[in-house]
Amino acid sequence: MEKIYIIEHTPSIFGNVKVSGSKNATLPILIATLLCNEKCIIDNVPEIEDVKTTVELLLACGAKVNWNKKEKIIEIDPPQDCPTIAPYKIVSKMRASILVLGPFLSKYKRALVYLPGGCSIGPRPINLHLMAMSKLGAEIDVNHGYIKSQVKDRLKGTTITFPKKTVGGTQNAILAAVLAKGTTIIENAAQEPEVVELVKALRQAGAKIEGEGTSVIKIKGVDELSSFHVKIIPDRIEAGTFLGLAATIDGEITIKDAPICHMESILKKFKEMGLEMKYDEYEDIGTIYVKKNKRLKGIEVSTEEYPGFPTDMQPIVMAACLKAEGCSVIRENIFDNRFVHVNEFIRLGANISVEKNTALVHGVKKLTGAVVEASDLRAGAALVLACASAEGKSYLLNVEHIERGYENFEQKLALLGIKIEKILKKEEELEKLRKIGK
Ligand code: EPU
């Protein structure tokens, strides 16, 4: 059985929604517990599939995990000994599993991590993760679909200069360098809030790190790490998704617990579209009141590393542009193939052409419901917004992508008035739907 959404045209939305803990902040922090010697506690953990997969990975490493889902708290007793294997079954479900490479090598001096395989948003190589480990002194052998790596004595501090900014690569380098001998400098480091949050957790456990949030991070290796107790920041992309919704459908909504301090580039673009928003810009985490009662204007937007406009928001902002006035120009600069959703939007009646990394979206007056498929998490969320603004009924397939990263998505949307229902369909029924749709 497969999960699908049936989404009906929703002319207006109204109500409140609360943003959950950040997926991309949670995953590396969970993995960082492998480096610690004592129980770690993590609050505000979203109940999403990627967190479940990471917990599965930690259990496979010998950690003891107590997840109080009602309270959104995870307590983790790090393993006494760890088999240092990231199995294919887990890595193939979630690419972020590669982040165990750093902790495995720095604490246990060996690692066997299966290669993640394909991804719909582009090739997503891990060469920069491997470069960082190799600079720190690990021997690396990539063969037969897995990475086998070891270090003779202990990883040694060094200078790692990333030729390209990488969030995961920077996090892995930090996770490896904290227990290395000597000092490591990471140049051209990623500056995303999710890197900063990882550093804050590690610092609580005794790590010596400076410069997080800038492009140069300095890490003085320590002999051991104790424990941390942290609260996960709200998810800036989820908050941005609700802003995208408010920019797609008329109405008035209140987004609570939005990480305003991490959303400058996102808020700026929706403001340019003409979306009415009220929030306290001096608040780190706060409430955004959003109102739309007229057609918005198309915009020009290019994805960039933080603090630029996030690539994860690109499909969402595109959904908001489909019915906006004029032509929007959307450039994807981070991933090579992150326009898979374009053809699905076209099936709903959108007018989009793509030339290399640029999509031109000519705003249309109406969209019409259709059978569409989610290719990845953010594309899936963006399609939900577009389907809700399309006339008639839409069927969205591959909902499991959305469940990887959005907590209670359809419940939150339903509370705002979106007509959305999740149902289970047999494979043969799905084939029928696909045939009707294509
Ligand atoms: N890259 C390389 N080699 C590497 C690593 C990355 O060439 O070894 C390239 C990538 O192909 C890409 C660019 O560098 O072109 C940036 O990739 P990055 O490493 O920053 O991405 P990531 O760490 O794999 C995280 C998020 C993604 C988000 C990107 C970019 C997590 C778990 N994932 O991925 O989130 O799109 O940063 O901001 O933090 C999502 O949440 O839906 C999602 C895909």
CATH architecture of the largest domain: Alpha-beta prism
Using only C-alpha atoms, the radius of gyration works out to 22 Å
Strand elements, count: 24
The coarse silhouette is globular
Number of DSSP helices?
15
Characterize the quaternary organization of these chains: single chain
Major pleated sheet: 4 strands, mixed
CATH class term of the largest domain: Alpha Beta
- The stretches of 5 or more residues where confidence is low (pLDDT under 50) are none
Small molecules bound:
uridine-diphosphate-2(N-acetylglucosaminyl) butyric acid
Instruction: Estimate the strand proportion.
Output: 25-35%
Distance between the termini: 21 Å
> What percent of the residues sit in helical stretches (DSSP H or I)?
25-40%
How would you summarize what this structure contains?
With 438 residues, the chain is of the alpha/beta class.
Task: Outline the secondary-structure elements.
Layout lengths: L1 E7 L3 E7 L4 H10 L7 E4 L5 H12 L3 E5 L4 E5 L7 E2 L1 H4 L9 H8 L1 E5 L12 H9 L3 E5 L2 E5 L8 E3 L5 H11 L5 E5 L5 H12 L3 E3 L5 E5 L8 E3 L4 H13 L1 E9 L5 H10 L2 E3 L7 E7 L7 E3 L11 H8 L5 E5 L9 H7 L3 E5 L2 E5 L8 E3 L3 H12 L4 E5 L2 H4 L5 H7 L3 E7 L1 H11 L1
Parallel strand pairs: 2-15, 3-14, 6-7, 10-11, 18-19, 22-23
Antiparallel strand pairs: 1-23, 1-24, 3-5, 4-5, 7-9, 8-9, 11-13, 12-13, 15-17, 16-17, 19-21, 20-21
This protein binds uridine-diphosphate-2(N-acetylglucosaminyl) butyric acid.
Uridine-diphosphate-2(N-acetylglucosaminyl) butyric acid binds next to helix 1, helix 5, helix 6 and helix 12.
